[in-house]
Write a structure and sequence with these properties.
binds iron/sulfur cluster, Iron hydrogenase large subunit C-terminal domain-containing protein, 14 strands, Fe_hydrogenase, Cytosolic_Fe-S_CAF, 4-stranded parallel sheet, Fe_hydrogenase_lsu_C, Rossmann fold, 14 helices, alpha/beta, 3 domains, Fe-only Hydrogenase (Larger Subunit), Chain L, domain 3, 5-stranded mixed sheet, disordered C terminus
Length: 471
């Protein structure tokens, strides 16, 4: 028998494999037909393929590049539809539509428009409020909770490993859904115990808002994020409230989608009237927008920096005021020389704590799939020297997310974003006074804390179809 697979429409070309004769056509993305011709001449139409967000391999080749068409429930069109529908409801039945904004999209607009972080944030708030969104929140409280929880998790695992128990080190961060999705689908059972169970800031924000919203309100929660992978994260079954059957984050829109929304409204961000952001605890406008802050450390959340400083203090009594990042060299120079003639791999950096003459903490930033693959291979060969790794799928991390604005010169745009990030006032979770309220009033016991701040992961078996072909 022969198998013949033809890809039409989005794909082109054909392939013949010994076995049975079959034809696979893609007349349209939602219409996939597979028929087989056996040697006895009978013809059979095989089951129609179903592809959803959960099937994404996070390979950065499809959804992460621009397959808007596949993401029907997570798009600006869906947001406009909800806003439109809401405006026709009776006031007491209307949804409260709110947006939580991550810092990277604000930085991206600020760099693109040549304005300050604060101005970009308030103009974005003005834009959202102008199209029918009632509240706009900064996501920093959720980020600070995520940092605190990751740090606690690391210290617990480090202590366990020192006392001879299984500590599953290195602890690998979990805030990047591109990386988590890749880990679940590619290295499943091996890698998942090493990944921090702490939710990302997006998902903590979702849980908190749905938990603390005014009682009489039904919430529709939108987030503004730097990449399409955050849509995958929001669509995970783990983040669906089993009672109300609603998601903690109902819709994710990205930086470039907001840019196209502005175009649709005939505006540039600089033409939008600024408005105050709102406090996610009181739901009232912030009195002083200059209290907008970013985290210390990397522009991808600062997980390494926060965890390192606290582990040094709590585990070894060392006060670390400034971290000394060591940029590593590419291991296979000939492949990388064109990109970095000096041989330095900016996406792999290490920090160590030497205490009593011994390296006690060995942390790393590992960004981009090339470095991630090397990291996983080292772990599999038991040659990984690290205790903690901040893992991000995008080269240069979230500031360079797949849905950020690129401008005419993407490298120059990224450099501006990084520079702006360094200039903004930073805040540590310890100096965030609102966290005390959350600890005292919301995260009152271990069960609540676990439900609101932690998640779980699932190894995904490779999809083997009736032809026994692994796609
Ligand atoms: S590293 Fe990239 S894919 Fe991962 S969360 Fe950040 S922007 Fe998204």
């Amino acid at each position: 028998m022969m198998i013949r697979i033809q890809f039409k429409s989005r794909f082109s070309g054909s392939k013949t494999i010994s076995g049975i004769q079959a034809q696979l056509t893609f007349p349209d993305l939602d219409q996939i037909q597979l028929t087989s011709n056996a040697q006895d001449g009978t013809k059979k139409t095989l089951q129609k393929a179903q592809i959803t967000l959960n099937d994404c391999l996070a390979c950065s080749g499809c959804i992460t590049s621009a397959e808007h068409i596949l993401i029907t429930q997570q798009s600006q069109d869906e947001l406009y539809r909800v806003i439109q529908e809401n405006s026709h409801k009776d006031p007491d039945e209307q949804l409260e539509i709110v947006v939580s904004v991550a810092p990277q999209p604000i930085l991206s607009f600020a760099a693109q428009c040549g304005i300050s972080y604060e101005e970009a944030a308030t103009r974005l708030a003005g834009f959202f409020k102008g199209i029918g969104i009632s509240r706009v929140f900064d996501i920093s409280h959720a980020r600070d909770l995520s940092l605190e929880e990751t740090s606690q998790e690391f210290q617990a695992r480090y202590r366990s490993s020192q006392s001879g128990e299984t500590g599953f080190l290195p602890l690998l961060t979990s805030a990047c859904p591109g990386w988590v999705c890749y880990a679940e689908k590619t290295h499943g059972h091996f890698i998942l115990p090493y990944i921090s169970t702490t939710k990302s800031p997006q998902q903590i924000m979702g849980s908190l808002l749905k938990q603390t919203k005014p009682r009489n309100k039904s919430l529709y929660h939108v987030t503004l994020m730097p990449c399409f992978d955050k849509k995958l994260e929001a669509s995970r079954e783990d983040f669906v409230d089993q009672v109300s059957k609603t998601r903690d984050v109902d819709c994710v829109i990205t930086t470039i989608e907001v840019e196209s929304m502005l175009v649709k409204e005939g505006l540039t961000l600089k033409e939008v009237e600024p408005a105050q952001l709102d406090c996610p605890l009181t739901w009232r406008p912030l009195k002083n927008p200059s209290i907008l802050t970013v985290n210390r450390g990397s522009a991808s959340g600062g997980y390494l920096e926060h965890t390192f400083v606290h582990a040094a203090k709590e585990l070894f009594g060392e006060n670390v005021l400034q971290l000394d990042y060591k940029v590593m060299r590419f291991e296979i120079l000939w492949l990388e020389l064109l990109e970095a003639p000096n041989g330095l791999n900016q996406d792999l950096q290490e920090v160590t704590l030497v205490h009593n003459g011994e390296i006690k903490l060995h942390f790393a930033l590992s960004y981009g799939f090339r470095n991630i693959q090397n990291l996983v291979q080292k772990m599999k060969r038991k040659k990984c020297p690290y205790h903690f790794v901040e893992v991000m799928a995008c080269p240069s991390g979230c500031a360079n997310g797949g849905a950020q604005l690129r401008g005419e010169d993407p490298k120059a745009q990224l450099a501006k974003v990084m520079q702006l990030f360094k200039e903004i006032q930073s805040q540590t979770p310890e100096s965030n006074l609102h966290l005390r309220y959350l600890h005292n009033e919301v995260l009152v016991d271990d069960e609540t804390r676990k439900a609101l701040l932690h998640t779980q992961y699932h190894p995904v078996e490779k999809n083997v179809n009736s032809l026994n072909i692994k796609w």
